[in-house]
UniProtKB/TrEMBL annotation, chain B:
Pfam families: DUF742. Coiled coil: none annotated. This is DUF742 domain-containing protein. It comes from Streptomyces pratensis (strain ATCC 33331 / IAF-45CD). The lineage of its organism: Bacteria, Bacillati, Actinomycetota, Actinomycetes, Kitasatosporales.
Length: 384, 126
């Protein structure tokens, strides 16, 4: 051992080992420091990246929001104008109903409806205005309204009439949804084929079934459609694709907002697509009158005295006397006709027997008092 | 979101079912098929009305009381006359309604006859 101690090489080696140990430990320290630094940098980078993604997302959202706001406002104006125009056209149709121009007015009305529908669809994507709230309407009328909003509406055949009615708030959304379905159906099928609509009551509500005889959809398209129709993660205005496909996206938004479901995953008996719109019970209602259509007809001002009986429900008409007091046969009409005053005999509007009796009694009392007060009549007051 | 040219909320509603859907896009009839004063009434042995459109059922109801002219019907339904004519023609073809052509306007009596009568009267009383 001592011989080693005296060996200078030993000392050199020892010094070398010591230096190496120090160097290694220093390096280790540096490496760990570097590692820590690297970790820090990594987290910093990740943070930055996150922020960046967030910022991008935020910017995208903001841009989408801005687009939506602008479009919403623009569409609202367009929708309003389309509504005004439709009103004007309706008035013109009444005014020139006898002339040949009516044909053109009907065509213009049709074009205007399509135009209004496009504006409405875009408005839906922008969470905008769906149009005037309609009063509750029969399902049949809503389906027909939808039919009128597409170009080739004469190809649509409504198979069944039902007594179902749609609640006021759901009339426009359902009509718009159906219109989009019908638009798809007519666009993806041959021009000479028909689109068939059936209405079926189901335990959960009512199904409106739209069958076309088109080419159908493949699985991929069906999956994509199902995703859009579910209304989750609506792609919004910017995600409509090119060319933009409105239909299913609009339907998805409406379905999610109003709580009905639409599916297009089955095949129609004609080989095309069968779209099924399921309306839950809470969107349905009942309409007391079988017809929601007849609006109160304008009451002529020259017969203020016969205005009161007009408010009578038509059910009362059967009890009306079938002859006039003069013994002449009286026209009996139900429903709308009872509110029409006849020009020569204001008596024609149907009255209940009690009312007739009281009116005649008042008349008689009047004539009696008149005669007895003046006593001018050669016949003298009638004794009663 | 309001804009200056925002539509007025109070504007009356347009009909839910437009007229061109009610006629199912058919073109107007020729003028001579139905005139404004053609009289219409329900047929005696009309088929069942269940599958008819509500508008057509309403027309039948209107006509069930007796004879009505086309113009009157149009007035009651508030549809354009041309549209009413299409519906009425449909119903007539379906056997629900019968139409009666208007009674031709009385021809003016021959002036000669009137003069002869006048002369006769004058000769007798004048």
């Amino acid at each position: 051992m001592t011989q080693y101690l005296q060996d200078p090489i030993f000392w050199v080696l020892l010094a070398g080992i010591l230096v190496a140990i120090i160097a290694i430990s220093r390096d280790r320290k540096r490496i760990s420091e570097l590692r820590r630094e690297k970790e820090d940098l990594k987290t910093h980078y990740a943070n930055l990246e996150n922020h960046y993604a967030e910022a991008v997302e935020e910017a995208k959202d903001r841009a989408e929001e801005a687009t939506k706001t602008a479009l919403k406002s623009a569409m609202r104006t367009l929708q309003g104008l389309a509504g005004e125009q439709q009103l004007a056209i309706t008035k013109l149709q009444e005014k020139y109903g006898e002339l040949h121009i009516l044909q053109d007015l009907l065509d213009i009305s049709h074009m205007n409806s399509q135009f209004a529908r496009r504006a409405q669809s875009i408005a839906v994507l922008c969470d905008g205005w769906l149009g005037r709230q309609r009063s509750a309407a029969s399902l049949y009328d809503v389906v027909r309204s939808a039919k009128g909003r597409i170009r080739y509406f004469t190809r649509v055949e409504i198979r069944a009439q039902t007594n179902f009615a749609i609640a006021s708030r759901a009339v426009e959304p359902v009509a718009l949804t159906l219109a989009e379905l019908l638009d798809n159906a007519t666009s993806y099928s041959a021009p000479e084929t028909m689109i068939e609509i059936n209405i079926r009551p189901v335990p959960k509500g009512v199904c409106i079934i739209v069958d076309d005889a088109g080419v159908g959809m493949n699985e991929e398209e069906k999956d994509r459609a199902a995703k859009l129709l579910s209304g989750e993660n609506s792609p919004g205005v910017s995600g409509l694709g090119n060319p933009p496909q409105f239909g299913f996206t609009v339907i998805g938004v409406l379905a999610a907002r109003y709580g009905f479901t639409v599916s297009v995953d089955s095949t129609s008996p004609y080989g095309g697509v069968r779209a099924v719109l399921l309306l839950p019970e809470d969107l349905l209602t009942t309409i007391q009158a079988p017809e929601p259509e007849p609006q109160p007809e304008p009451q002529p001002k020259e017969f203020p005295t016969v205005a009161a009986p007009r408010s009578m429900p038509p059910e009362e008409s059967p009890v009306a006397p079938s002859t006039t007091l003069g013994g002449l046969p009286k026209r009996r009409r139900r429903g709308a006709m009872s509110i029409v005053p006849a020009v020569d005999s204001p008596d024609v509007p149907v009255r209940s027997s009690e009312q007739t009796a009281s009116v005649m009694g008042a008349f008689q009392r009047g004539t009696q008092s008149g005669r007895s007060s003046t006593n001018a009549s050669s016949e003298g007051p009638e004794t009663q | 979101m309001t804009t200056p040219d925002e539509p007025e909320q109070e504007q009356p509603a347009t009909p839910l079912v437009p007229a061109y859907v009610i006629t199912n896009g058919r073109s107007l009839l020729d003028d001579d098929t139905l005139s404004l004063i053609t009289l219409v009434t329900t047929a005696q042995d009309a088929p069942a009305v269940q599958h008819l459109d509500p508008e057509k059922r309403r027309l039948l109801e209107l006509c069930s009381g007796g004879h009505l002219s086309v113009a009157e019907i149009a007035g009651h339904t508030q549809f354009p006359v041309g549209v009413v004519k299409i519906l009425l023609s449909d119903l007539t073809q379906g056997g629900y309604l019968v139409t009666r052509a208007p009674i031709p306007a009385a021809k003016l009596v021959d002036r000669n006859i009137l003069e002869q009568v006048l002369h006769g009267l004058q000769a007798r009383f004048g």
